[in-house]
Amino acid sequence: MNPLLAGRDLLDLETLGRPEMEALLDTAATFGEVLRRDVKKVPTLRGKSVVTLFFENSTRTRTSFEAAGKYMSADVINISGSASSASKGESLRDTFLTLQALTADLVVMRTPYSGACHQAADWVGVPVVNAGDGTHEHPTQGLLDALTIREAKGSIEGLNVAIVGDVAHSRVARSNVWGLTKLGANVRLVGPRTLLPADAERLPATCHTDLREGLDGVDVVMVLRLQLERMDRALFPTPREYCNLYGVGTKALAAAKADAIVLHPGPMNRGLEISGDVPDLPRSLMERQVTNGVAVRMATLYLLLGAEG
Ligand code: CP
Known about the structure:
Elements: H1 18-35, E1 49-54, H2 60-71, E2 75-80, H3 92-101, E3 106-111, H4 116-123, E4 128-133, H5 139-153, E5 160-164, H6 171-182, E6 186-190, E7 206-208, H7 211-215, E8 220-223, H8 239-246, H9 250-253, E9 261-263, H10 286-304
Parallel strand pairs: 1-2, 1-3, 3-4, 5-6, 5-8, 6-7, 8-9
Helix pairs in contact: 1-5, 1-10, 2-10, 5-6, 5-10
The structure holds phosphoric acid mono(formamide)ester.
Phosphoric acid mono(formamide)ester binds at residues 58-61, 132, 138, 141, 265-267.
């Protein structure tokens, strides 16, 4: 058992130490081997129950937490926020106390409210995992991105990484800024001024409003979706203009290193933030990111639940 993370929450990468992050990545790399087997099942978490509580839609994160738990023989119970008693007015605190009383050993939550996972973690004694809280953080996405970069490049130390697009609304960007810089990368945030974070000066990253300048010589290009659902006013003139100025296509990629890789956390809008052909290039590793997401979530459940075998 690795005691570094046993019994702890995974709420953000801003406060997570580098040793803990490396333990998660190294453990995820070993679980990657289980995912390549014909029979993807180990008894590691037999008898443990994992609850996923999602108040926002998800394809990748929710499914991969469920798969991760099931591949390790945990009992996984999925609750969608809209189908829970929260829709009848039950508070988040009472919801978490109820899940604890129902003998959940760990709760994974996605919420539109930044900071809600931290609050929930104060209310219950079982580990809480943040699966995305508002515009704040998405730590397991940051870890799966780091794992994908490490696999492709051998090491993260000294790499130049450009995160391009709607950074202001992106919890993925925040987790990556904290996570990748702790692992030794230099991070650039690239986008129109209206989509760069208002608190950019407290983040360990540089800001660029020119796409070509932002991508110049980078090793990794991470493209972000425009999160229209989180915009309460127009932050760019038209989708066509955004695409012309900030859409990542082969022409824009020519500014990056010849062996630069392309990542996108998904869901992608081809033809908007990324051209239709770029995701299908060999340098684009979106499917690898998804598979690594299962491995990272296996590692998260394994280490937080303090599994022995
Ligand atoms: N990357 C990500 O969080 O995707 P989902 O919203 O599909 O979970």
